[in-house]
Amino acid sequence: MVNVLSNTNTILNQFIAEIRDAEIQKDSMRFRRNLERIGEIFAYEISKQLAYESKEVVTSLGIANVPVLADYPVLATILRAGLPFHQGFLNFFDKSENAFVSAYRKYHKDHSFTIQVEYASAPDIEGKELILTDPMIATGASTLLTYKELLAKGKPTHTHLVGILASQEGLDYLMKNLSRNNVTIWVGAVDAELTAQAYIVPGLGDAGDLAFGKKI
């Protein structure tokens, strides 16, 4: 159910090292591009799990039979930090329909917070493969809430939940709540610690702020 890509030595680990690096993070354009490149790597890995069909392609010298995607997955992401990560998937699955969900932490006076969904735009996902991206899986609550929000648009045949960094607590939460669903979880790396304020340690900070600037 869970695939951790950093367990294998690949170029992905170089990009994860860069998005964690506080000095490199000062270049927001490079941070966004690294999120995009990481998305491309995940897209390639997930593409191996999708259904293919043979297609005859006419070349200048003959006909080649090539396996191509039977259907493109629906790509969904959580605004705003998910946008560069999502773009990496869209670079590969360029014919996919897209879904966007606005979810955020609403903090209370006692410093606790709840996850609020403000907006969801999605195509019909009934009977389709769904890829839901959330760069940082801290508690797992926003990922799960977004997934449930998308189910109002139909029941996918299979869902791939994808995060770049996850806390072990967040992974455990998702596995507990999704154990009966047809879901595969993909993460770049897993960090052991989650602070009282629900930030991943060592993590990388606020991905949305690093990509687009601090919010008011």
Topology:
Blueprint: E1 2-4, H1 12-20, H2 28-47, E2 52-58, E3 63-69, E4 74-79, H3 82-92, E5 98-107, E6 113-121, E7 129-133, E8 136-137, H4 141-150, E9 158-167, H5 168-178, E10 183-191, E11 193-194, E12 200-201, H6 207-212
Parallel strand pairs: 1-10, 4-5, 4-7, 7-9, 8-9, 9-10
Antiparallel strand pairs: 2-3, 5-6, 11-12
Short recap of the structure:
This protein is an alpha/beta fold and 216 residues long. The chain has helices spanning 12-20, 28-47, 82-92, 141-150, 168-178, 207-212, and strands spanning 2-4, 52-58, 63-69, 74-79, 98-107, 113-121, 129-133, 136-137, 158-167, 183-191, 193-194, 200-201.
Q: What would you say this structure looks like, in words?
A:
This protein is α/β, with parallel strands linked by helices and 216 residues long. The chain has a single domain (2-212), classed as Rossmann fold (3-Layer(aba) Sandwich). The protein is 31% helix and 33% strand. The protein is built from 6 helices and 12 strands. The chain has helices at 12-20, 28-47, 82-92, 141-150, 168-178, 207-212, and strands at 2-4, 52-58, 63-69, 74-79, 98-107, 113-121, 129-133, 136-137, 158-167, 183-191, 193-194, 200-201. The strands form 3 sheets. Strands 1, 4, 5, 6, 7, 8, 9 and 10 form an 8-stranded mixed beta sheet that branches. The protein has a two-stranded antiparallel sheet with strand order 2-3. α3 (82-92) links the parallel β4 and β5. α1 packs antiparallel against α2 (28-47) and α2 (28-47) crosses α3 (82-92). The longest helix has 20 residues, at 28-47. 34% of the residues are buried.
